[in-house]
């Protein structure tokens, strides 16, 4: 997925808002203090691990995309295209 950076601002209807902070807050709500488990799948061009992360049975990437706080990053996977649509 591609989510806003924590300090990123976005614009909607001509108004700026702290989308990075809001996306982070949404992820914290999804996690709710529970253990997150990630399964590595690849590395991106900067050497960072690309993984599928879950809390309980919830795929956090799918939830973030479905809820509008991230985009399906099709450069690495088409897994979340359905959630984005």
Q: Which structural class should the secondary elements be placed in?
A: alpha+beta
The amount of helix comes to: 25-40%
According to DSSP, the number of beta strands is 5
Beta content = 25-35%
Rg, Å, rounded? 13 Å
Measured distance between first and last alpha carbons: 14 Å
The succession of helices and strands, N to C, reads EEHEEEHH
Strand order of the largest sheet: 3-4-5
Count of helical segments?
3
Major beta-sheet overview = 3 strands, antiparallel
Report the uncertain regions: none
The outline comes out as globular
Mean pLDDT: 94
Explain this structure to me?
It is built from 3 helices and 5 strands, in the order ββαβββαα. The protein is an alpha+beta fold and 85 residues long. The radius of gyration is 13 Å and the shape is globular.
